[in-house]
Amino acid sequence: MTARSTGQNWALDIAIAQGGFDALHPAAKGTMEQLGHDHTDFDKVFTQVRSGAMLPKAWATVAAQAEERATHHEAEGFAQTAADLYLRGAVMWGRAQYSVFDAGDPRKTAFRDRCNHCVARLSELRGNRVRRVVLDFEGKHIYALLHLPAGEVRGAPTVILGPGMDMIKEDYIYAAERYYTSRGVVALSIEGPGQGESRAGGLAVDLTNYERAIGRYIDYLAELPEVDARRIGMFGISMSGYWGMRAAATDSRLAAVATFEAVSGDFETIFERAQPSFKNNYMYMSGYTDEDLFDAELAQRMPLGALVSDITCPLLMGIGEFDELTQLEQALATYERVRAPKEMRVYENEFHPLGGTAGEVFRFGAEWLERALAGELSTPGRDERYYVHNDGRTTKGSAHPAWWLGTTPRQITDAAASGSSHSS
Q: Given strand 315-320, what is the order of strands in its sheet?
């Protein structure tokens, strides 16, 4: 636990009691729906929650209800209705286990077992097109779900679906089916070091092992007959946008990367000024209990800086104008340092979850990757910038908000100058 979280926990409880999930992540319900949460389940959960301590019980209670209905429909022979309900149960059991931060707590293990059971039933009912993957990695294991299109598949484009720091591989089952396998694209939803079952098995995240884990997943995918090893991309949101950019800078086998709300700034914002739960979570993920050591040995070394100038594949960055984990100026500064074919989209008045545009973002990211993996977005010097207005308009040519009145904050101009000198 961090000093801030210990001192401010009461404030978070009041915020949850008064504002529900929106108090933690404004307008996030739209994003949660893209991660397989039915809005009625979501509302059921948060009518039961008045403090953070109540979250595991609420998620587990509603998860059990969805699973019970799934079991009923499966017994009656309604396989796809059952599969849909097993999916709802799986993502809620996943939220329940996430809400317990002690890896040795038997309740966390029990919730994970229920999540795995729901995924196993869903997989069988979907014709084994969702497959559990366990890979050896640096003396431990990493875990993923392979999502395959229906029918015979050979040499297909493939997308690695990277979860944010407080997500798990199961969170992408719905999106994988809707946006990827339905289009003939293979998907692999992953858990890297520090996440889900990987963390439960003792694998913590450090500065560089997440991108090595992505490399291990690429090794696995490249051996599958269903996959074209030359067309493997990655979709990442939040921290997996950060990890995806690190991976693209160090592994040329990634052919395209689409990121949304990536944490691409100074890391003081997320760890010192945002809700203290973010730092608590990352300390748990990285195995630190001493906050001072965490700051000195990991947090201060995490900013991307000039590393992104080593990216060579097409890169998409999307961010909310008021993302509370990365200041817009810092995200635009990172973008300036990228020399690969690139695209930036800023969404007006959106916060970190991009909840108001989630349906658009998940579909657009998938379609952008399809085109990028087909070689359509690889023109050297490509630099597309957009500001997406709330009223439906999109300004092309600049990602700067209109209220900046045509000015450019200094940290962006400094980054642009630095990138220009680096490339000369």
A: 130-137, 140-147, 186-191, 156-162, 227-237, 256-260, 315-320, 342-347, 383-388, 394-396
C-alpha span between 173 and 53 (Å, rounded): 27
For range 379-397, the mean pLDDT:
97
Token reading at 178: 């809707």
Contact 334, 307 (CB under 8 A): no
Measured CA to CA, the distance from residue 210 to residue 191 in angstroms comes to: 9
Of residues 253 and 53, the one with the higher pLDDT is: 253
Q: What three-state secondary structure class fits 421? A: helix
pLDDT at residue 28, rounded to an integer = 82
Q: How far apart are CA 15 and CA 24, in angstroms?
A: 8
Strand, coil or helix: what is 360? helix
Residue 8 has pLDDT above 90, yes or no: no
Residue owning tokens 């097993």? 86
CA angle 295, 199, 209 (to 5 degrees): 60
Q: What integer pLDDT is reported at residue 85 of this predicted model? A: 98
DSSP 362-402: HHHHHHHHHHHHTTTT--TT-EEEEEE-TTS-EEES--S-G
* Dihedral of the alpha carbons of 309, 334, 392, 28, in degrees to the nearest 10: 120
Query: What is the C-alpha to C-alpha distance for residues 377 and 278, in angstroms, rounded to an integer?
Result: 34
Residue in this structure with the two tokens 């997440």, named with its chain if needed: 210
Q: Is 281's pLDDT higher than 50?
A: yes
Rounded CA-CA distance 189/146 in Å is 7
Kind and range of the H or E run holding 219: helix 209-222
- DSSP label of 139: T
| Helical packing angle, 328-337 and 410-423, nearest 10° | 10
pLDDT given at position 422: 45
DSSP state of 320: E
* pLDDT attached to residue 18: 57
d(CA 168, CA 200): 12
Q: Residue 181 is which amino acid?
A: T
Give the per-residue pLDDT at 15.
Answer: 58
Helical H segments across 51-147, by residue range: 55-75, 79-98, 106-125
Q: Show the tokens assigned to 222.
A: 């490249």
Amino acid at 369: L
Please classify residue 411 by burial: count the beta carbons closer than 10 Å to its beta carbon, then call 0-12 exposed, 13-18 middle and 19+ buried.
middle
